[in-house]
Design goal:
With about 50 residues, the chain is mainly alpha-helical. It is about 90% helix and about 0% strand. The chain starts with a helix and ends with a helix. Mean pLDDT is about 75; it is low at about 1-5.
């Protein structure tokens, strides 16, 4: 029973690291999407003008 506590602490730290990595990758995808959308809008406006 004494060994269960360190194991749960390790699991929580791994979960926290996983959450940080996931949130960073989601924000990175969002940045890429904003850049793509911006370039697509600029290309459309330039072709119309």
């Amino acid at each position: 029973m004494g060994m269960a506590a360190p194991n749960t602490n390790a699991n929580s730290s791994v979960n926290m690291i996983g959450w940080i990595v996931t949130s960073e990758s989601i924000s990175g995808i969002r940045l890429v999407w904003i850049r793509l959308r911006r370039t697509m809008i600029q290309d459309c406006c330039q072709s119309v003008v």
